[in-house]
Every structure is written in C-alpha cells, then in structure tokens.
Amino acid sequence: MEAYERLKQLVETCADDIAKAEGGNKAAGTRVRKTMQDIKNAAQEVRKGILESRASEH
Fold first, then answer.
1. What's the pLDDT tens digit per position in 24-48?
2. Rounded CA gap, 53 and 37, in Å?
3. With the CA atoms of 37, 17, 13 and 52 taken in that order, what torsion angle do they form, in degrees rounded to the nearest 10?
C-alpha cells in the first residue's frame, strides 16, 4: 500500500529532527511539528484505504 509506505518514510525521516529538538534546536522542533502533521494526514489516508478495501469486499 503506497500510503503506508509514505507513512513509514515520514516517521523514519523525522527521527533525526526529534533528537535535535530534544537537544534544544528550535528549528528542528518546527520541522518535527510539520512532519507530525504530515504523519497524521498519511495515517488518515492509510485508515481510509483500509476502510475502502474492507467495504469493497462486502
């Protein structure tokens, strides 16, 4: 599923910025917040895809 792969990629790319943000880097914190919003949207797309596939089975 393409949406799931995008979700995994977003989580992986965010790891470095999370570590930097914990160290006090404000710019990294901003990037983390933006990426978290993208992760939220990607997760919603995965959820939507699963519901659509389940509905098409019936």
1. 999 999 999 999 999 999 999 999 9
2. 25
3. -20
Taking CA 57 as the corner, what is the angle to CA 55 and CA 58, rounded to the nearest 5 degrees?
Answer: 75
Q: How far apart are CA 40 and CA 58, in angstroms?
A: 28
6-29 pLDDT, tens per residue?
A: 999 999 999 999 999 999 999 999
Cβ-contact 35, 6 below 8 angstroms: no
Closest CA to 46 of 34, 58, 38, 57: 38
The first and second tokens of residue 5, run together, are 């792969």
